[in-house]
Write a structure and sequence with these properties.
The chain has 23 helices and 10 strands. By secondary structure, the protein is mainly alpha-helical. It has a domain of 117 residues. It is globular.
Amino acid sequence: MKKLKFLKYAAAAIVLVAFAGCNDILEDVEPATSVSGEVVLTSEEGVRALRSSMYSKIRESFGHTTEYFVAPSAFTDETRNRPGSTRFQELTQAIGTSGDSHFGNWGETYDIIQDANLLIGAVEDGVLAPEVLSQFQGEAYAIRAFAYHSAVRVYGYEPGTAGASSWDAGIIIRNEPVIDVTDADFRPRSSVSEVYAQILSDLSQARSLLAGTTNNTFANAAFVEGLTARGNLYAGNWSEAAAAAQAAIAAFPGDLESTEAGVANMFFEGSGDHPEALFKIVVNPDTENSLNFGDSFGNSGPATYTSDGFMAQLPTQFLIDKYEEGDYRLGWYQPCAELQKNPLTQPTNCDGVNTNGLSSVKFSGDKGNSVDDLPMMRLSEMYLIWAEAAAKAANDPNAGVAALQTLRDARNAGPVPAEALASLNAFENFILDERMRELGVEGHRFYDLKRLGRDIRNPDGTIKMFADAYRILAPLGNSLLNVNSELVENPGY
């Protein structure tokens, strides 16, 4: 039996948190705060703790919380700094070439992958009932795929794009658990196509292991199909993306919210409680109010950046103007002064970003201590993927109308306009706008423009970053390059 000898390399002590949905399986673990390295892979309580650690590392990661949701808006035209605030200012101004003026989630990604790899390949025989272990491993395959995709879209181009044809470096594929320091070897970046093949392979494994699961506080069947749809969309596999999006919709036990109150309140845990979340990280504001390994949601959480605390990033008028009168989604924007619960600073000058001084309520600190649950994927994204992918698969915008109209009907947004159907390019433009209306401040805008080869623009339409600019990709940085000589830096840095 291998022992976990090095905490630094193999998570020899698993820190337990009251991860929502896991409380019932953790309550008998002793001591209450950790499990020793010897029992992590050799006892039921240890494996269950490892499973919780995998999910908790998403919650603890700035790169998979605030940076995941808010930064892609700040880097584009969806949000801007409230005058007097500085958080993500480097992104809004696109200055410099350091990691502060891009995203970076390399280390946090591999922390998540390490736990997933341990669950997939290192649990001792007989520790768990076979059906329980199969479920846990299915979740691990799904979360590993999620982690790989969240990183490869930061550091690499998408398969088949012009960028990938000239620079085909993705990220490192590491599917073996690191039990001992001697297991940690240096290896180069895999190609973008290899990484996407790994993502889709992991999701195929997860699909068979998680069939019929519906609990959205864990990776589940609908989330697996949703990730498959997202991955194929980024890879330009249109038919596969459309089919997977429909499979995700079919596997999800709920439906789109379609009333004014239902849409407006869906992000509030006290009322709507994320009825469209295919997968969400549930955060206990009393026991899990930490972020980025000790920092608090009150200081660095999504709400603190958008509608609570510092209110550093507010929706631009460019975004607000995308909505037609009567669109239920306008309820996602409320006056700053009415939203702030944790007054780290006075919410003044909000009208310096948009006319009516509005803030997004998608993260509002509704649970207390500036804490929100984190909807990592929502049902509405599936209708948008289905619409875009179906139109492109058929080379006909009309093929995407039904899916798109279903979403717009639920949001009281009116019919798809005739001008959106004039050409495939016109439909893509409209889809991009619809994705802003629906998914603003949920981590999509920058990546949507990047995967489609669009320039990154400011809200006034001026160019911030050309589509072929080297800064479309994030730098790996010297801290990685100096440790692993097999790595190569992205061009231009």
